[in-house]
Amino acid sequence: MIPPHEAANHALPFFITPPGSTDVLMVVAAILLIGGVLLTGVLFLRLHSLPERMAHKGKKLQFEIVAVLCLLALFTHVHMFWVIALLLAFIDIPDFLAPLNRIAGAAEVVAGTAPPPQEPSSAEPAPDAPPAAPPVSPSQGGGHA
Q1: Domain regions of the chain by residue span
Q2: Which class for 76: exposed (0-12), middle (13-18), buried (19 or more C-beta within 10 A)?
Q3: pTM for the predicted model, two decimal places
Q4: Does residue 120 contact residue 126 with C-beta atoms inside 8 Å?
């Protein structure tokens, strides 16, 4: 270790390092600064995605709207988008389409019209298609003269 200069005060604080040595206080401060910035960034992003995570866990219908509002709030810094997204994540919007589809199906049954064909599920085998009619050649009278 190099002794301090004769003109230097002999009661130097512990954080003053001799020439050529590593400044431990600066290294510790740099590590704490980098860690604090990273921790603050992670906390900020987790807070911004809070409504989206809440809507995803609750399997809400409005999940995509909440996700878009969270992104808008993140990139534009308009905090009202985040507040709206949080409110939408808490609200359970009722499904109006299912009862209307049931009413429409019941009305078709009463009217005697066939409902639109349903896609066959994987559990039920698809019904066999009717055989296709053979093509009619012009010699059999099906064509125009």
Answers
A1: 24-90
A2: exposed
A3: 0.52
A4: yes
